[in-house]
Specification:
By secondary structure, the protein is mainly beta. The chain has a single domain, classed as Porin. Helices cover about 10% and strands about 65% of the residues. The protein contains one helix and nine strands; from the N terminus they run αβββββββββ.
Length: about 210
């Protein structure tokens, strides 16, 4: 029930801003690549499964409102890809060769999470000019769209809603009718991916984005 309510809330917010056009200071699109990783920690044992990051797409639309001299409010609605890859190792003891221990590397297993993400953020920019640096910071809500894995032991009890943070630094270049920019984003999770104890699973992602603002 939470997912439809949040989607409806976001749609109403964007529609309200669109109707009251005088409050909109900019809209735009951005896209790029996201480098994400998923941590798997068994809390009672203090044991962490080693994982490697995966690369996925990052796409977002945004609206900027309530612009002041240096501060404004920006709402991002994004397609977010998260995940990781790992190899499950096994150990064999060769009793015929002085009990030599051999580590057998298993096949690579990839897990992917796809989210619809909403980030209302404060946007701080330096003095306006042809080139303007800026900073974004705010909370984030991720709604789970899909979970896929190659592992024979998939995660259970997936949380449909994940809370997190979005922080970014960017550089914007203004043209006559629009502006183009490059942005580096970091998105850590504040709530776990699954509630299955004793395993604690969290996502985090680093994204490089290029965009256009109208």
């Amino acid at each position: 029930m939470k997912k439809p309510i949040i989607i409806l809330w976001a749609a109403m917010l964007i529609s309200s801003a669109t109707v009251s056009g005088q409050f909109i200071d900019g809209v735009g699109l951005k896209g790029g690549l996201s480098l994400s990783n998923t941590s798997h920690e068994f809390t009672p044992l203090e044991y962490t499964i080693e994982t490697q990051p995966v690369i996925g797409p990052a796409l977002a639309a945004f609206v900027e409102v309530l612009q002041g001299e240096h501060l404004s409010l920006q709402l991002d609605a994004a397609y977010a890809s998260r995940g990781s890859k790992t190899r499950v190792e096994s150990i064999t003891v060769d009793h015929m060769n002085n009990d030599r221990i051999m580590v057998n590397e298993g096949e690579e297993q990839v897990s992917n999470f796809t989210y619809l993400s909403f980030s209302p953020m404060a946007r701080f920019r330096a003095q306006k000019g042809s080139i303007t640096p800026y900073v974004l910071l705010g909370p984030r809500v991720d709604l789970l769209l899909k979970y896929e894995t190659d592992s024979p032991y998939p995660l259970d009890d997936q949380n449909d809603m994940i809370l997190g943070l979005t922080g970014a630094v960017g550089l914007e270049y203004s043209l006559s009718m629009l502006a183009v920019f490059a942005e580096l984003q970091y998105q850590p999770d504040l709530s776990p991916v699954t509630n299955t104890e004793p395993l604690l699973v969290n996502n985090n992602a680093l994204s490089l984005l290029l965009g256009v603002r109208f």
